[in-house]
Amino acid sequence: MSDGPKIKAIAPWFGGKRNLAPKIVDALGDHRVYWEPFCGSMAVLMAKPPS
Predict the structure, then answer these.
(1) What is the SS3 assignment for 40?
(2) Among 26, 39, 47, 50, which residue's Cβ finds the most Cβ atoms within 10 Å?
(3) How far from the centroid of its chain's Cα atoms is residue 2's Cα?
(4) What is the DSSP string of 6-24?
(5) Taking Cα atoms as reference points, which of 36, 8, 37 lies closest to residue 22?
(6) Are residues 16 and 42 in contact, defined by beta-carbon separation less than 8 angstroms?
């Protein structure tokens, strides 16, 4: 895996998690599966390392 730059949210909008994404990722802890039913701009998905 590359330690390159993180991908930013595709389309930031009001109510998005772009600014909160790093804190949300920290709160997730270790996991094997990550599922986002309402992905919106996928800010959290793009901020987290692969499962």
Answers:
(1) coil
(2) 47
(3) 17
(4) PPPPSS--TT-STTTHHHH
(5) 8
(6) no
Residue 31 to residue 13: CA distance in whole angstroms: 28
Q: Which of 2, 4, 8, 3 is nearest to 45 (CA)?
A: 8
pLDDT digits (tens, 9 = 90+) for 1-51: 556 666 666 666 777 788 888 999 999 988 888 888 887 788 888 888 887
Count CB neighbours of 49 within 10 A: 9
Distance CA 30, CA 27 (A): 9
pLDDT for the residue 6: 66
